[in-house]
Amino acid sequence: MDVRRRQPKPPLPSAARGGGRGPASSSPPLEPPKASDALPLPLYLTNAVFFTLFFSVTYYLLHRWRDKIRDSVPLHFVTLPEIAAIVSLIASFIYLLGFFGIDFVQTFIARASHDAWEDLDDDVNRGFGCTDIVAPLPKSRDPAPAISALSSVEDEEIVKSVVDGTIPSYSLESKLGDCRRAAFVRREALQRTTGKSLADLPLEGFDYTSILGQCCEMPVGYVQIPVGVAGPLLLDGFEYYVPMATTEGCLVASTNRGCKAIYVSGGARSVLLRDGMTRAPVVRFGDVKRASELKFFLEDPVNFDTLALVFNRSSRFARLQSIKCSIAGKNLFTRFSCSTGDAMGMNMVSKGVQNVLDFLQSDFPDMDVIGISGNFCSDKKPAAVNWIEGRGKSVVCEALIKEEVVKQVLKTNVAALVELNMLKNLTGSAVAGALGGFNAHASNIVSAIYIATGQDPAQNVESSHCITMMEAVNEGRDLHISVTMPSIEVGTVGGGTQLASQSACLNMLGVKGANKEFPGANARLLATIVAGSVLAGELSLMSAIAAGQLVKSHMKYNRSSRDVTKVC
After folding, report:
1. Could you tell me which residues belong to the region Disordered (predicted)?
2. Helix 179-194 vs helix 155-163: crossing angle, to nearest 10
3. Cβ(86)–Cβ(111) under 8 Å?
4. 374 or 131, which is more confident
């Protein structure tokens, strides 16, 4: 397959576009343009003038300065002719310095345009298959921007250079200046290297510039994930349609049923308990005594204002909230917690921590910083510190489901739900030694919303920490259900939230971008929506299990009847 891209040809001159009836072969050959055409004089004459000027004024000034030295006249006393000579010297020097660039540009353009105009002349002489009318040249739908280092190299040659290692794959964007073309070249090189086809991996229809230096390196395409909508979710008196990106059948339908049960029961209520992102560096000292001295210094309330002042310099949104330390031998782990506005905040808190570490070096010069993150944070890992202390947004969400709704919408009864929750979510999870996993499938909903709204999917690990509680109330007739999620890590600015599709999903929820009036309000609202959606998902799945419908519904909605071998 020839992957070379034919460069669009220059537009036809007016004579070639005219309705001339004579044979096309009688047209005079077309001359390629020259870079020197832009100069007022021919290039050789212009060069001669400036060469003469440069050496003439240099000779004149040297003689004038020699005479001044002989006559003991200060050199900084200059006459009008000397000023003119100095100006002429500078001007001629600048021109001669740029002459080699001009000569290079002329040669470069002449070579490139000569080939293009030769092709154009051949097409005109052939008449494009018609001796009467010359059809207008089609415009390229995706013109490639001008490139610097590889402007005369075809895509095929670039692909070969990537395959043999002459051009690093990671440098294609910077060398080509075209993110889409770089993805195409990298993709073709990958296919030739592996011998595997990527025909089913989409390439077109994505803005690769939007991810450059931000979301993904060395792209070769993108993966399509369907986005479903569950809702309306009635939460705190407002309705939300929740976008969920998933490939699991039944998930959106089940969450949607939970939203319906909550809606007809009067809605859910949420409370935000805490909002603070954490980062915990690890430092080492020569002995335990010095490590403990730093621990006492950091945890002393007297020093907090000074440390907060240093920390808060990292951002106008970063505000230090607390510092907690833990010692392991002569190693000190320090957990900083701060507010981060509408950003998820990992970069923000890391910069603040770095400021504090630099500040502490003056009083603790023997402190050896082992790492900016010592896993006491703890990020993207199940950890008791997040389950107990919280990380990101800590949210509690509850709803009171009426008896008739449990029977008619959820197809079960209150007593069965309460018993199942106690044995499955509480006792069963304890038997399994679960850490933050006292729920049915909180991770399902969290992951789907995270992918749809541009969050970090890996943070689903701690963000899915959840304990689901169910209790029969009003003399056993109605069901009180709640979810407690201590570490929901979300943001509405930065990262994947700036991509077009993810931004549209955030806009659907009314939390797109930063809240200018109340910084951090959009991210906090998104966290409560996540918790409310988890509440709906827990309610529906637990009801399906209690009613014995789980297997039946998955066999109906989560199994494909297509013959995959025939599709392939």
Report:
1. 1-33
2. 50
3. no
4. 374
